[in-house]
Prior knowledge:
- The protein has a single domain (11-69), classed as SH3 type barrels.
- The chain has 73 residues and is an alpha+beta fold.
- A five-stranded antiparallel sheet has the order 4-3-2-1-5.
- It has one helix at residues 11-22, and strands spanning 25-30, 35-43, 47-52, 55-60, 64-69.
- The relative contact order is 0.23.
- The N and C termini lie far apart (30 Å).
- The mean pLDDT is 91.
Amino acid sequence: MMIMGTDKPNIQDNYLNELRKMQMPVRVLLISGKELQGVITGFDTFTFTVEVKDVEVLVYKSAVAAIAPEARG
C-alpha cells in the first residue's frame, strides 16, 4: 500500500493487512503493560480492531508497544 505523494511503502499497514488477511492470531502488547490476544479484523490510520473472544476491540495504534503473531497449534 502506497501513500499518495511518497515513494515509501507503509510498513505498518502492510503488516496489519497481511495479519488480517491470514487471520493470524496475534498478541498485542500495550504500553500500559496489558496484553490482548486475538485476530485483527480491520485498521485505519490511527486504530485497528482485534476480535478477542468473540468481542471486537478498538485499539489506538498510539497505545501499542508491540504486535507479534502467535504460533498456530
